[in-house]
Amino acid sequence: MAMKTKKQLKDVFGGISSMWYQSTELDLSSLTGIEITPEYDVPVKVDTIELEQGDPSIEHYKVIGLPGDWITSSEAGDIDLSFRVPTKHNDILKLAYGEDAVKDITGATVDDVEYNGTALTLVDKQVEGTFILVNANKTKLMILANTTLWAKPVIDSDAKGVFALDFNGTIESDGTTPDILFLEKAPENSGPSTEG
Predict the structure, then answer these.
(1) Using an 8 Å Cβ cutoff, are 134 and 143 in contact?
(2) CA-closest candidate to residue 169, choices 34, 52, 32, 12
(3) Strand pairing partners for 183?
(4) Which residues of 60-94 are buried (b: 16+ CB within 10 A; e: fewer)?
(5) Using an 8 Å Cβ cutoff, are 126 and 149 in contact?
(6) Residue 159: closest CA among 50, 15, 46
(7) What is the pLDDT of residues 100-113, one digit of tens each?
């Protein structure tokens, strides 16, 4: 077999323009006919999406009289996923903390001025579901399955005090079902055949 060139091996996913979210995990028991139904186009701050797997921890087992390893084993590194979402929209607060943690406030008065708004209880809630990264022209998707994250509130000093939620977590890989899917838009049909 001839060696493949760098040009032949170029198959890049980049230029993320959106992060979509659906609350249900994908059914990946079969890799055909996968149903993806995003519920939110999450407003993620530029340059905050990070996905990285740590280095494996390598165990070296040595015996007397030999300079090298007798046997080597390893454990995969932890997977870290994080991003910042600068919004206090009720749907995102409920995504982060649950339905019961978000309540409406009406008729609050400060110096004879009436205010309405939202009350948030900071509970410890796992955010599970599927995140879909979308390239600029929506022809390529990178899907993160088996995700588990937690949210924390922050005041983003980069943006002069914007309230945001930081999501931090991992991909809980079981080593059997896919965790990351790369999809490309299928070519559009050119119509029915006119050959007779």
Answers:
(1) no
(2) 52
(3) 141
(4) eeeeeeeeeeeeeeeeeeebebebbbbebeeebbe
(5) yes
(6) 46
(7) 999 999 989 999 99
Q: Report the alpha-carbon distance of residue 125 to residue 96 in Å, rounded.
A: 7
**CB 101, CB 123: distance < 8 Å:** yes
User: Which residue in the block uniquely carries the two structure tokens 């206090």?
Assistant: 88
Instruction: Determine if the pTM surpasses 0.90.
Output: no
Q: Which two tokens stand for residue 51?
A: 């996905």
Burial of 99 (0-12, 13-18, 19+ CB in 10 A): exposed
85: nearest Cα among 18, 171, 26, 143: 18
DSSP state of 26: P
Enter the tokens of residue 162.
């914007």
Instruction: Answer yes or no: is pLDDT of 190 > 70.
Output: no
Helices (H), ranges, the chain: 6-9, 90-97
Check if the beta carbon of residue 36 is closer than 8 Å to that of residue 130: yes
Q: Write out the H or E segment, with its range, that includes residue 140.
A: strand 140-156
Task: Return the percent helix, strand and coil in the chain, to nearest 5.
Answer: 10, 45, 45
Q: Which of 66-75, 175-184, 187-196 has the lowest mean pLDDT?
A: 187-196
